[in-house]
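Weekly modeling sync, notes
Attendees: S.R. (lead), two postdocs, one rotation student

Agenda item 3: backlog of single-chain predictions. S.R. asked that every request posted to the team notebook include the full sequence so nobody has to chase files. The rotation student volunteered to paste the first one in as an example of the format we agreed on. Action items at the bottom.

Example entry:
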Amino acid sequence: MTKADGAYGRAVAVGVVSPVALCVAAVAIQLAVMGDVPDPVATHWSGDAPDGFASPTLVPVMTAIVGGMLPVVLGASGLRSIRRGERGFVLRMMPAVAAGLAALMAVILTGSLLIQRGLADAADAPSILPAMWVGLGAAVVAGAAGWLAQPRHVERRPAAVPVGPIARAAGERTVWVGRAEMRAPALAAIVAGVAVAALAAVANWLVGDTAVAIVVTSVAVVLAVAAASLTVFHVRVDAEGLTVRSAARFVRMRVPAADVASVAAVDVSGLSQYGGYGIRSIPGATAVVLRNGPALELTRQSGRRFVVTLDDPATAAAVLAAVAEDARAAQD
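Predicted structure, as returned to the notebook:
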């Protein structure tokens, strides 16, 4: 499969153009009926009865954000990988999911206004369930159509470059130490999210409800632990083999030198190859993928691969190849 298969253009049409078109159509209908609905309108239902109300203008705003911007971001997130020639299940699925999400939100949010046309009081609004069921059906149809509109993806990834052992003097020992970490913008966004959660926890303890404060604090703690455990890893290659340990020391993975069958440097895409970022496990491989780009790839004696993103994978691979060679020689 090559770049000429039309995958990029169809992914754009499905994951970007169709959500925008659905969003624009939904907002146009909403604005057209704005004068026929009560103010405020019902925006939330508990069972068959509305229990949340807001200005009618909130509906098109939410449609633009949740039914437009969010699906477009989702649909566009894999386009760069597709343009590079990468193919995979996730890269085909994401535009289809974006189209389905856009259809879901367009129908539900527009339906929430249409069922209130002619009402004097939004408290008399009928159940939102029929609109939700229609929205779910529209999402399934749009998602399936988006999937079928794209060409079949045969997984394709850059070839690994085998690396031989680093040159050493007789009896010389080698050690390589480095870090695997997220790109600065992604790391900053995560840190900011943890900070916001922490501030919200403090605010709730000072002026909020105790039960809410406990929940928010728990969320902040979980986010902080996850950020410390999954954003930066220390990587060490020595006579024992490869060790990958999170900065917070909660996660530690080790591959003994004797278990290393081969090593290579490879270019990885977390989204297309592993379905996301962080610690990933897929058939045939375990990976610590914190960003797209160069990575160290080792193959264990069992044939299973272990991958970790690094700035200098070739040197790390060469040192690992050397210590693996020493370990095999010691066993003979």
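Discussion: group reviewed the output briefly. Residues 181 and 231 are 6 Å apart (CA to CA).
Action items: rotation student to repeat for the remaining queue; S.R. to check formatting next week.
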